[in-house]
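A.,

Following up on our hallway conversation. C-alpha coordinates first:
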Protein backbone atom coordinates (compact mmCIF):
# COMPACT_ATOMS: atom_id res chain seq x y z
CA UNK A 1 0.00 0.00 0.00
CA UNK A 2 1.10 3.50 -0.74
CA UNK A 3 1.43 5.97 2.11
CA UNK A 4 -0.80 9.00 1.82
CA UNK A 5 0.95 12.36 1.83
CA UNK A 6 0.47 14.14 5.16
CA UNK A 7 1.93 16.99 7.21
CA UNK A 8 4.62 16.22 9.69
CA UNK A 9 4.49 17.48 13.24
CA UNK A 10 7.31 19.96 12.51
CA UNK A 11 5.40 21.45 9.58
CA UNK A 12 2.27 21.89 11.67
CA UNK A 13 4.24 23.58 14.46
CA UNK A 14 5.90 26.00 12.02
CA UNK A 15 2.51 26.85 10.50
CA UNK A 16 1.01 27.52 13.96
CA UNK A 17 3.95 29.76 14.92
CA UNK A 18 3.62 31.74 11.67
CA UNK A 19 -0.12 32.21 12.19
CA UNK A 20 0.49 33.34 15.79
CA UNK A 21 3.09 35.89 14.69
CA UNK A 22 0.68 37.23 12.07
CA UNK A 23 -2.15 37.55 14.58
CA UNK A 24 0.10 39.31 17.10
CA UNK A 25 1.14 41.78 14.40
CA UNK A 26 -2.53 42.49 13.64
CA UNK A 27 -3.30 43.08 17.31
CA UNK A 28 -0.31 45.41 17.72
CA UNK A 29 -1.32 47.33 14.59
CA UNK A 30 -4.87 47.68 15.90
CA UNK A 31 -3.58 49.08 19.21
CA UNK A 32 -1.54 51.70 17.35
CA UNK A 33 -4.57 52.67 15.25
CA UNK A 34 -6.77 53.04 18.34
CA UNK A 35 -4.14 55.24 20.03
CA UNK A 36 -3.74 57.44 16.94
CA UNK A 37 -7.51 57.72 16.51
CA UNK A 38 -7.88 58.84 20.11
CA UNK A 39 -5.13 61.46 19.69
CA UNK A 40 -6.73 62.75 16.49
CA UNK A 41 -10.14 62.97 18.20
CA UNK A 42 -8.64 64.99 21.06
CA UNK A 43 -6.70 67.23 18.67
CA UNK A 44 -9.88 67.92 16.67
CA UNK A 45 -11.77 68.79 19.87
CA UNK A 46 -8.90 71.13 20.90
CA UNK A 47 -8.96 72.85 17.49
CA UNK A 48 -12.72 73.27 17.73
CA UNK A 49 -12.46 74.76 21.24
CA UNK A 50 -9.70 77.16 20.16
CA UNK A 51 -11.63 78.23 17.08
CA UNK A 52 -14.80 78.85 19.12
CA UNK A 53 -12.86 80.91 21.67
CA UNK A 54 -11.24 83.05 18.93
CA UNK A 55 -14.66 83.69 17.40
CA UNK A 56 -16.07 84.79 20.77
CA UNK A 57 -13.04 87.01 21.44
CA UNK A 58 -13.28 88.51 17.96
CA UNK A 59 -16.92 89.46 18.44
CA UNK A 60 -16.22 91.26 21.74
CA UNK A 61 -14.87 94.82 22.01
CA UNK A 62 -11.15 95.07 21.39
CA UNK A 63 -9.50 95.43 24.78
CA UNK A 64 -6.54 93.75 26.44
CA UNK A 65 -7.73 90.57 28.11
CA UNK A 66 -6.30 87.23 29.15
CA UNK A 67 -7.84 84.18 30.66
CA UNK A 68 -7.65 80.47 31.17
CA UNK A 69 -9.97 77.58 31.81
CA UNK A 70 -9.58 73.88 32.51
CA UNK A 71 -12.37 71.47 31.61
CA UNK A 72 -12.05 67.68 31.75
CA UNK A 73 -8.24 67.81 31.84
CA UNK A 74 -8.02 70.16 28.84
CA UNK A 75 -6.40 73.53 29.61
CA UNK A 76 -7.15 76.58 27.49
CA UNK A 77 -5.30 79.91 27.70
CA UNK A 78 -6.22 82.97 25.63
CA UNK A 79 -5.08 86.56 25.20
CA UNK A 80 -6.23 89.64 23.31
CA UNK A 81 -3.58 92.32 22.74
CA UNK A 82 -4.73 95.50 20.95
CA UNK A 83 -2.16 97.15 18.72
CA UNK A 84 -1.77 100.87 17.95
CA UNK A 85 -2.86 100.34 14.33
CA UNK A 86 -6.45 99.38 15.36
CA UNK A 87 -5.77 95.68 15.07
CA UNK A 88 -6.05 93.11 17.84
CA UNK A 89 -3.76 90.09 18.20
CA UNK A 90 -5.81 87.11 19.41
CA UNK A 91 -4.13 83.94 20.65
CA UNK A 92 -5.61 80.74 22.03
CA UNK A 93 -3.66 77.73 23.27
CA UNK A 94 -5.29 74.41 24.16
CA UNK A 95 -3.24 71.73 25.95
CA UNK A 96 -4.41 68.12 26.31
CA UNK A 97 -2.93 64.79 27.44
CA UNK A 98 -2.57 61.68 25.31
CA UNK A 99 -1.18 58.98 27.56
CA UNK A 100 1.91 60.35 29.29
CA UNK A 101 2.56 63.00 26.61
CA UNK A 102 1.17 66.53 26.60
CA UNK A 103 0.11 68.07 23.27
CA UNK A 104 -0.84 71.65 22.42
CA UNK A 105 -2.82 73.38 19.72
CA UNK A 106 -2.17 77.11 19.30
CA UNK A 107 -4.24 79.39 17.07
CA UNK A 108 -3.44 83.06 16.47
CA UNK A 109 -5.14 85.67 14.36
CA UNK A 110 -5.40 89.43 13.89
CA UNK A 111 -8.72 91.19 13.66
CA UNK A 112 -9.63 94.83 13.14
CA UNK A 113 -10.85 96.66 16.24
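Then the amino acids I'd put at each of the 113 positions:
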Amino acid sequence: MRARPAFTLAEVLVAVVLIDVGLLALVAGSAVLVRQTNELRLRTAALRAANNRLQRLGSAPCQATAGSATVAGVREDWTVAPRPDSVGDLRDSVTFQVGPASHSVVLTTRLPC
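The chain has one domain: 9-112. Curious whether your intuition agrees with the design.

B.
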